[in-house]
Design brief:
The chain has about 800 residues and is of the alpha/beta class. It is about 30% helix and about 15% strand. The strands form 8 sheets. It has a 6-stranded mixed beta sheet. The chain has a 4-stranded parallel beta sheet with strand order 1-4-5-6, with no helix packed on it. Strands 18-19-22-28 form a 4-stranded antiparallel beta sheet, with no helix packed on it. The longest helix has 18 residues, at about 75-90.
Length: about 800
């Protein structure tokens, strides 16, 4: 008689029963193994996973295979390598539990063969969440095809300080926009069935993007109202509207408690208040940082107990601290039930994604999911939609007979500058730096930093961590740009430089003029001569974002100035002074202080690290085949001293407070939502379906938008609201809706928003979530500072809410 299969292997049973059965069979060591990760380099051999090494490194199994996309460069080989790991775990560990395999997917799956998209701040500039949902769907399909079932994206941090190096990973400064984009990403990535999708991870919970001096990983000086009302909003939206299944903690501390050790943040707020039911995963080495540099635990073992007790389920990238959990339980320092709860959450996700029933993929068909024609077309569509025209005196678009063009600047002939961090080109550069003994700055992978006020981190059990820690925070690692661009061209064979793309329209002379960061001005004379010999100059300038050497943006690449780096200011000013009509293409991942240097430019096009389609989109825009319609998801501060700058500041604060600096204005140079076009639009006829609604009702707010120019173009109609009088200070404006509409010359459309009054909910003086009775100003226009249409409504009652109920505003063009 055949023995019945144990309940956890019976696919017809409810997941909860299967998890309970499996958990009941596990030893302490097996449980602890499920709440840690491992870098596969620790057990890889010359020809793939080495069974002997795996027996030594993960004898009881493992929770996560970290950065699994790095196992192989081709989809078939990658799927085969992941299959081999899963098969070993199934066949050579006592309970045969497969591992989650995670990877980055900020702007497409971070793998050499995956479809690439613009960086996140560029995605936000489209103001089209539906495109981001489609992009995440592409990344999810590619991930699943090779056996990756968990991604460490999206970044849901609300960023308001341009000095911070990771601005490019965010969706900008506005919590409503961040929520809309984050919800769309999670829906696309996870789908409505995790068995067919990929788990998304919202990060970094909470307040990570707003730190002292905008320095990465430092304290977040945020009060409890802002924590909930601003920084938690995108997370709650992704949780309640899209079922976000994973959250990653912030490195920072809030009010004296490291987030990784804070039950108030990770349990009370995240789970009890925001309704989160998934797994909390650690940002790399965040648990060890409780010990050092935060110095609130005496050792790594104590740090592990604190983090697990706080609600941090899985330590990544390796078990530096959680490997001691079994001893802590035996010694009475931790209740086994605390570990059981984390393991239960981890195992639940194994079943939800289908790993327990089908841990391997068809490696021979993996490549079919990658770079599908529709995905490549989507990449170009998103890139086109992300470009923001900051200024234009009519010089753009250039005519077909514009004559010769001099493309000048460090972005003219580079491929690397097109890509942000957390992309294959940035990873290639990092690999080259490490192979040459240079350095990088990815937190949690390259050690704990150069904290002069505390002892160094304890040696980790992972040789990968120890090896790269030796070169942490090097600023001298500058990879040969020719070698680097050759490697990037190997990833994207059809890619062009900006100069090459422009050369398809008109004769081009390309001169670098200067480097990104070096102060050497020797090449500027040649650039000026090239400018004088041309009919038009295109300045291709900006900053490089990554982890290595001359990158001035990226993780651990925070700045105390926002000016163009190196000799670029001198280059820009001297080229413009040559007197030739000049337009500027600025490629960056953050708002830069460029207004002064580019005061003489005829037009300025802001390009957020666009990826491989960028040069063609840029050239199409310059010559009028594409009419730019992107809008700014961040404000451009009037100098670094005016940062942080953001549109939704409180009454009595910010640039609307009638305060200015003694040496300049406080208002932004270009405000949130700004973006010009080659055509003109008129927005008129504001209507409200009700002017005295109740606090729990919705109001249809509509307006007419007409293309009054002679070109087809896009306009983003933006809805803002203001609580006129509140029991606590409220923002001068809140973004409450947006809709991008495409119109032919002379065409008009009506845009309508279904505005829920509950969007006005906030914490009153008793920290109760309420919508208060009173007057609300409604404003509609083209940007946060261009709002020609205004009306008022009066909420007739107050309403207390258990939690927020509205995160996005349905809109339509009719």
């Amino acid at each position: 008689m055949t023995e019945a299969a144990p309940p956890h292997l019976v696919s017809s049973l409810p997941i909860s029963e299967r998890v309970a059965d499996l958990l009941s069979r596990m030893t302490l060591e097996e449980k602890a193994a499920q709440v840690v990760g491992v870098f596969p380099a620790m057990f890889m051999g010359q020809y793939g996973p080495d069974p002997d090494k795996m027996s030594q490194v993960i004898p009881h199994g493992v929770g996560h295979i970290c950065m699994g996309g790095g196992l192989a460069r081709q989809p078939r080989e990658l799927a085969a390598a992941i299959n081999a790991i899963q098969e070993w775990l199934r066949d050579h560990t006592r309970l045969g539990i497969p591992a989650m395999v995670h990877n980055e997917a900020l702007c497409g799956l971070a793998h050499d063969c995956a479809t690439a998209f613009p960086t996140a701040i560029g995605l936000a500039a489209t103001f089209q969440p539906q495109l981001i949902e489609q992009m995440a769907g592409v990344a999810s399909s590619e991930a699943r095809a090779v056996g990756i079932n968990h991604v460490l994206s999206p970044v849901l941090d609300v960023n308001r300080d341009a000095r911070w190096g990771r601005v490019h990973e965010t969706y900008g400064e506005d919590p409503f926009l961040c929520a809309a984009m984050g919800i769309a990403f999670v829906r696309g990535m996870q789908t409505d069935d995790l068995g067919k999708g990929t788990i998304a991870t919202g990060k970094h919970f909470l307040g990570y993007s707003y730190t002292e001096g905008a320095l990465n990983q430092t304290a977040s000086p945020i009060g409890p109202r802002a924590v909930y009302e601003v920084y938690a909003l995108p997370f709650e939206g992704a949780i309640r509207e899209a079922g976000l299944a994973s959250v990653m903690n912030s490195y920072s501390e809030i009010d004296g408690v490291p987030v990784a050790a804070s039950p108030e943040i990770l349990t009370d707020l995240l789970r009890h208040q925001l309704g989160f039911q998934g797994c909390v995963v650690a940002d790399y080495s965040a648990v060890a940082r409780i010990h050092q540099p935060h110095a609130v635990a005496a050792n790594n073992a104590e740090a592990g107990v604190m983090a697990l007790s706080a609600g941090l389920d899985i330590e990544l990238p390796t078990g530096i601290c959680y490997s001691s959990l079994p001893d802590a339980i035996r010694n009475g320092e931790l209740e086994e039930s605390v570990l059981d709860l984390a393991v239960e959450r981890a195992l639940t996700q194994r079943f939800q994604v289908g790993l327990m029933d089908s841990p391997t993929m068809n490696a021979n068909r993996a490549a079919e999911a990658f770079n599908q024609p529709a995905a490549l077309e989507l990449s170009r569509t998103i890139t086109d939609a992300s470009l923001v025209l900051l200024e234009n005196d009519g010089t753009l678009p250039l005519r077909a007979d514009a004559g010769s063009v001099a493309v000048i600047g460090p972005m003219a002939d580079t491929l690397r500058g097109l890509f942000a961090a957390y992309t294959p080109p940035a990873a290639v550069e990092l690999g080259l730096a490490l192979s040459q003994g240079l350095g990088g700055s990815m937190a949690g992978v390259f050690g704990g930093g150069d904290d002069a006020d505390g002892p160094a981190n304890e040696s980790s059990p992972d040789p990968t961590l120890d090896a790269v820690a030796k070169v942490f925070h090097s600023t001298g690692a500058i990879i040969d740009p020719v070698e680097l661009d050759q490697a990037i061209r190997g990833l994207y064979p059809d890619i062009s430089t900006i100069a090459d793309a422009i050369a398809r329209y008109t004769p081009v002379t390309s001169v670098k003029g200067c480097d990104w960061t070096r102060l050497d001005e020797d090449g500027i004379d040649e650039a000026v001569e090239a400018a004088r010999g041309a009919d038009v100059v295109v300045l291709a300038i900006g900053e490089k974002t990554g982890w290595v050497g001359d990158a001035t943006g990226g993780e651990g690449r925070d700045r105390k100035t926002l000016e163009l780096a190196g000799a670029q200011p001198q280059l820009v000013r001297r080229v413009i002074a040559a007197g030739v009509p000049t337009v500027a293409v600025v490629v960056s991942g953050r708002p830069l202080d460029i207004a002064g240097d580019l005061a003489g430019a005829r037009a300025i096009l802001q390009v957020w690290h666009p990826g491989p389609e960028g040069p063609e989109s840029i050239a199409s825009t310059l010559f009028g085949e594409l009419n730019p319609g992107g809008k700014l998801p961040v404000s451009f501060p009037a100098g670094v001293g005016a940062s942080p700058t953001y549109h939704g500041h409180k009454h009595g604060s910010g640039s609307s407070s009638d305060r200015a600096y003694v040496d300049g204005p406080s208002a932004p140079v270009w405000a949130f939502g700004h973006g010009r076009s080659y055509t003109t639009f008129e927005i008129s006829n504001l209507t409200l379906s009700a002017t005295v609604p109740q606090a729990g009702e919705a109001v249809v707010i509509g307006c007419e938008v007409k293309n009054t120019g002679d070109r087809a173009g896009d306009e983003v109609v933006q809805l803002y609201v203001r609580d006129v009088v509140g029991s606590v200070t409220r923002p001068v404006r809140q973004l409450a809706g947006f809709h991008r509409v495409s119109l032919e010359p002379g065409e008009s459309s009506r845009v309508e928003f279904d505005f829920a009054a509950s969007q006005l909910a906030f914490l009153n003086r008793n920290f109760e979530l309420v919508v208060e009775e009173g007057d609300v100003e409604v404003m509609v226009g083209r940007s946060s500072t261009d709002l020609p249409l205004k009306a008022s409504l009066h909420l007739t009652n107050s309403l207390r809410l258990d939690h927020r109920t509205s995160f996005t505003t349905p809109s339509r063009a009719v």
